[in-house]
């Protein structure tokens, strides 16, 4: 999923970028990097590891300058090379350039093959390299024009920040699938970040979301960013950001993420109101199931209890690349509150079910700990389709809802009952004022 | 505060001990160590760092044998030497010995000075070294008798596990101030650990708490541990374990820690029931304020909301040694949920107020984020006295409740109102069937 | 200066390459890397550090396959990025490719600018990237033809090894400036390496030097490498390899490096034979001045003594990038043998004088230690011109022999006398059967 | 073998100590440590690793104060614990104390057992702990008197430096087996070090060797160290320091180590002068065989040649603890100069033969490289007895000269001839003005 940030017009640009990346660490923990521009030269530091590990004081000294872009990398298939960290830097005809990217380009292989046919070489596995090649091969005199034309060949869900030696160009695709917001730093200058939760920590005021199809240009000669509407907006923000990925204190498209999750829980409770089930307590799968569980509890009157404790010393399991390691460590991460749940009927709430293996393990863990019944509620619809718009999902065959009906899944995970939200429920919970990117739930791959 | 563990009669003793220490990481993150006994030789590995960092597969290979003791070290004043990690190992007349200790010895300086007067040398700053010297200087033929006599000179709150080449001796002081529980491993053998939360992860059944004043002896020639009641019990478990330190899924003295915290919150709500305050939501200071906030919400009917988000990537701030570092990182750890709390009146619940600086910062952060009112509730009484029984508290001068009245503190932290539990409230919340160690609240330094 | 190696047709290709790189560590200590090819896929591991640090058993497991190329990087100006390590890997039209390079391309900026003008992007600071671009942009069907045409645009001193998924192409420029030898592994397959000292350690037999202007092609379908003479040879091996850079046990162009250095020392002695100087002992600046000092001693009859001790625990000073660090550590590296030299007249032999600062420090150190006289002899001519053919020299202004006469230098370094070899002496010492690359001494920049 | 250093009366005491330890790194590479005294408090930093790794600027900041003692640890059997690094620190009746020790105590087990019988505990495996216990158990009021009486119980080869909060006590055993010299720092204050090679680097003037049986006391109230002759000297310096262990530029007992090694080589040549052997060149086993080879060459007229190259990038093999690792890496360390030795008859000189395995491998390597004949000469007598005076030798069974005659060894290592020095030769080479500690050669275990 990744996080990106751009800071412009502040002498502590790299430091501010690093703190913003720290606040968005949940979006990617595999690698991180920052490029600053100073006196016409771009400096880049990128490495595997957490923001707090990579950006030491020493590293920040190297990253001098009053503008910086940064990236947190979420592991995706195959890309375990250090070279696959961002920003991607290159020298080209107009000088030096560095790019960060959040999203996924649908036509990346086609463009790559075409460029390779024409003699390009690719040194990384990242689709970000496409954009640099398209910019470099263009013959326009101004970078802004090259970017525009490069985007003509770029289909997908994307947020780019392109930094030259003196400017920054921020672009969000016309659907606005991935979030991107603009803020004003109280210490001077601007910040653009994937999530608004970054603004608080760096003492910035939220101005507005970057518009779908918009290009913002930060230029030393102008006090305010220039805005160019490159494409007619067809706004379809990603529903999955609300369900699971964004931090609850972020605001996307004027919607507070926490509140939308609470609504999802309330909706689950409304759907259950005629159910014969008599649960003793609502138990969230921590941490992401908590807001929905609070909503369910508030709606239903069934008390909310912390029946599962999360151990925060586990390290990076939660978001780690391979399936095996997730299996190995799941028991070290979640502990059942035995004395609380013994003999009780639990209404367990999780944000989603992907492969089903974790859910199965949680149900087993709770029953082993003495739970009488485990009713599983999922604060999202069934995930039947892989996401090609920037969220790391497994292949369709690995998606349990592709292979099984709800009843079969309930049996598989050994729950006493299982309910999901419908797609309509989800849309209503977030806010029915908008089309959303819902492809994981309904297969509507609308990006073309 | 520290955590200790002993595993006896299991071929994976050190591995089980390391997993138990992992489950008790919250009790100490500065250093960790394990001694195993194998073929009449004791092997020790100890180092600074987290359990998951120190106990690699390679380290565990060195720690062969079917018995092991382990320790997590919580930083205490001055002791930043690697030599101050436990277990403490020594060769003495009867062979090799290794000891872990949780607690604090009241008369440690007196004993130390006396031993030094008689020619002893001290190579560490730990009071654990006292016990080894007392054992070594004793002339009895059996280790058990030496330990008994050594304990005659040992006044304080303590849980010791002493490991020789073939036996383990577990001792808890007559007051039972620090928790210590006995379990049976489903894979064979026994485990003794500071908290029962360790038992679940290593697949052990809780048998019972080690009794105040009891010595348990594990011996290869006996299937079950031998129990010797060294001292008449005067049971006074530490109230602070319930308030703050123990993991919520642990059970101490048959009382579920989570439930006691919930009760503390309920009591706060009952005390507030005639209050004119109209709070819009109950907001916990995460993570330890959560159960009390749930209790307050359930009792009062005011909705529980996650108004403060905790960032879990911060690292070891929470429990780090120096005050400065805590200051520096507090904003990186806790983020206010702006859109949730804006214009709202908040009933904020924390587990305790020690110096007052963190509380002040939290109130400011919430008001900066738009909270209309912040009513601060503390799920424990005012801390007016330093703890000498094993919990790391600052000097009395640093305790805000020693220096200020409740009203003054309320003003200092800039809250709109402030309430604590009374000592009686606290006792009733935990369970009024017991005398507790309450010295931090009432100055009753009963250990003599 | 760098070292390169290629191994073909051996199941332990990467391991053999790593041992060969270890034997050639003196040619570059900043970074090292290896690419292997296995089942149509190229794997690359490269990093800063010594060969023994980077190529752990774990790393070698990743580098499976029966062919591998490797590189040791010597730091050159500006290139401190991890991205500037070799091999350079890319995907291009014909598949995957990886290249290692030793040397320096004279027209690199021109080619680079031209390629950039045509839309290429450069992600590293290495001239090796030129060759990949030229190969990628070519339209020929066969890699060998693309390489040939790419070389048409490539002017300079170079040794390349290009590895595709199944073949290796070895190319040496027509002057043969940098050394490159072919060997046969006793365990099967072939090895190509910058220096023959690599062959002994990997149990390979020296076959012959790769010929100037030759391309060797290793192909799985042929038992022996195919040889194509791309260019008419104009053999001019680098004299500086004999003077200083190659390991003394290497053989370049059938000339044993140690013997040539001994000859240089003998020639210095012959030149001195009518000198009125009465030296008590010949003292080498260790390690590289030793063979010449032995030659001087054998020729003159003045005893050879180890008057300067080299401390081998210093680490990587000798070859480290910045001038400052060299200054700081020089005294830690070399110690005078006080009791040996006190009151004595010393004939000190070093391989070369570049900036003069080290020589000045050595003379001072020896005089401080009690030497009566220090006569400085240099086993090479005065270095007046920077090398553009692959050896890292400072700018012309920094070369002391560009700024000063021999007499001025003698005064500057505070020696009692100073003599160099003439260029003719040098050529005769190496062997007067050949034109050599002598540009550092005579400014003959013959590469066009 | 270890190195020790004491610096007194200089504000950069710890920094100077660290540089002196760096100069004596050859005496021990397993671990290193320094204790400084500042304002009545002793600070200690010790760790595994090289001096340049452990003593960073940060570490030296901690080690404030105008006096410091330091130690380099050579690995000895069994002691691989971090706790076995020196200095050894303890609190005892008179305050704080820290001790470094070079040597070996003959009666250490007896004293240890006696102390343990009386109730002492031992936390390390080092005999240095004995001295601290003896000092601590003594009842005298002054540390100097306690040290004196403690030494009454201490039999062996030793150099101690004892540091209290304000003084340093330097003691050398009455035989003076291990070297120890006194110097005056040009920047103020005094230095005591195992080898004089440390003095040059820290800019100190050699004053004299510490006398056998002497105690030097450094005291802030006196400008010069007080000297107390504790025992009647029976001077017997260790011959092995001259043969192998000391750095060639050190001076021990007024004898330059390099010169004594040269003499050993000359003596070997004299012994060979009627030999029918016609060697083409004298080849040292680098680095320690070099001076003797130069002596042999000078005496015999046979040219000295560097027939074996040593690779200095190997790391710490030379001095590493286990036999296995030495085996593995020997070929990576030494390379034969093929073209030099091919078809030649070599006179190879090494400093000693211990187990015979390395010698055997060297002969094989040279013959594989084409040597016609390999005549092995050893610049020391046959080692038939283990050293108990501080040098790490294997058990007697592992000493090849204990198990085999010279002829058998020659056959075993496959040399064409083999000669040693006689014990008399060795004594004459060093200087026949002294009794030496020769126990490894003649079994004269004189220390009682």
What descriptors fit this protein?
homotetramer; 448 residues; alpha+beta; Glutamine Phosphoribosylpyrophosphate, subunit 1, domain 1; Rossmann fold; 7-stranded antiparallel sheet; 25% strand
Question: How would you portray this structure in words?
Answer:
- 4 copies of one chain form a homotetramer.
- Chain A has 448 residues and is of the alpha+beta class.
- Chain A is elongated.
- In chain A, 31% of the residues lie in helices and 25% in strands.
- The first copy, chain A, folds into 2 domains: 3-235, Aminohydrolase, N-terminal nucleophile (Ntn) domain (Glutamine Phosphoribosylpyrophosphate, subunit 1, domain 1), CATH 3.60.20; 258-442, Rossmann fold.
- The first copy, chain A, has 17 helices and 21 strands.
- Residues 316-328 of chain A have low confidence and may be disordered.
- Chains in contact: A-B, A-C, B-D, C-D.
- At the B-D interface, strand 5 and helix 5 of B face strand 5 and helix 5 of D.
- Chains A, B, C, D: Keywords: Glutamine amidotransferase, Glycosyltransferase, Magnesium, Metal-binding, Purine biosynthesis, Transferase.
- Chains A, B, C, D: In the C-terminal section; belongs to the purine/pyrimidine phosphoribosyltransferase family.
- Chains A, B, C, D: Residues 2-221 form the Glutamine amidotransferase type-2 domain.
- Chains A, B, C, D: Mg(2+) binds at residues 288, 350-351.
């Amino acid at each position: 999923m990744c996080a990106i940030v751009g800071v412009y017009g502040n002498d502590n640009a790299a430091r501010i970028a690093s703190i913003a990346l720290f606040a968005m660490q949940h979006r990617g923990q595999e690698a991180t990097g920052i490029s600053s521009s100073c006196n016409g030269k771009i400096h880049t530091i990128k490495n595997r590891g957490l923001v707090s590990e990579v950006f030491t004081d020493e590293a920040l000294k190297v990253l001098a300058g009053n503008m910086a872009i940064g990236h947190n990398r979420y592991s995706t298939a195959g890309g375990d090379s250090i070279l696959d960290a961002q920003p991607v830097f290159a020298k080209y005809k107009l000088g030096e350039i560095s790019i960060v990217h959040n999203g996924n380009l649908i036509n990346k292989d086609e463009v790559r093959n075409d460029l390779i046919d024409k003699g390009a070489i690719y040194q990384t596995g990242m689709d970000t390299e496409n954009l640099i090649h398209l910019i470099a091969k263009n013959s326009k005199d101004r970078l802004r024009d090259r970017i525009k034309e490069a985007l003509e060949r770029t289909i997908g869900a994307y947020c780019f920040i392109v930094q030259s030696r003196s400017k920054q160009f921020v672009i969000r695709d016309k659907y606005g699938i991935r979030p991107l917001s603009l803020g004003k730093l109280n210490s001077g200058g601007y910040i653009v970040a994937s999530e608004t939760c970054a603004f608080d920590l760096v003492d910035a005021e939220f101005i507005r979301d970057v518009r779908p199809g918009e290009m913002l240009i930060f230029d030393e000669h102008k006090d305010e960013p220039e805005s160019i509407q490159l494409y007619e907006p067809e706004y379809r923000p990603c529903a999955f950001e609300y369900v699971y990925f964004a931090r609850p204190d972020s605001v996307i498209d004027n919607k507070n993420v926490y509140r939308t999750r609470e609504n999802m829980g309330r909706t689950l409770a409304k759907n259950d109101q005629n159910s014969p089930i008599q649960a003793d307590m609502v138990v969230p799968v921590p941490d992401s199931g908590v807001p929905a569980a609070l909503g369910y509890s508030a709606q239903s009157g069934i008390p909310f209890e912390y029946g599962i404790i999360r151990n925060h010393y586990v390290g990076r399991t939660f978001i780690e690349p391979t399936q095996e390691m997730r299996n190995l460590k799941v028991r070290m991460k979640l502990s059942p509150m035995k004395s609380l749940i013994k003999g009780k009927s639990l209404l367990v709430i999780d944000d989603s079910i992907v492969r089903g293996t974790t859910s199965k393990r949680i149900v087993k863990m709770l029953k082993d700990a003495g739970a009488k019944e485990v009713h599983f509620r999922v604060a999202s619809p069934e995930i039947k389709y892989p996401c090609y718009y920037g969220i790391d999902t497994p292949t369709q065959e690995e998606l349990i809802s592709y292979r099984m009906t709800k009843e079969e899944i309930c049996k598989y995970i050994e729950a006493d009952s299982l309910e999901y939200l419908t797609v309509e429920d989800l849309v209503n919970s977030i806010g029915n004022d908008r089309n959303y990117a819902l492809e994981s739930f309904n297969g509507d791959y609308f990006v073309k």
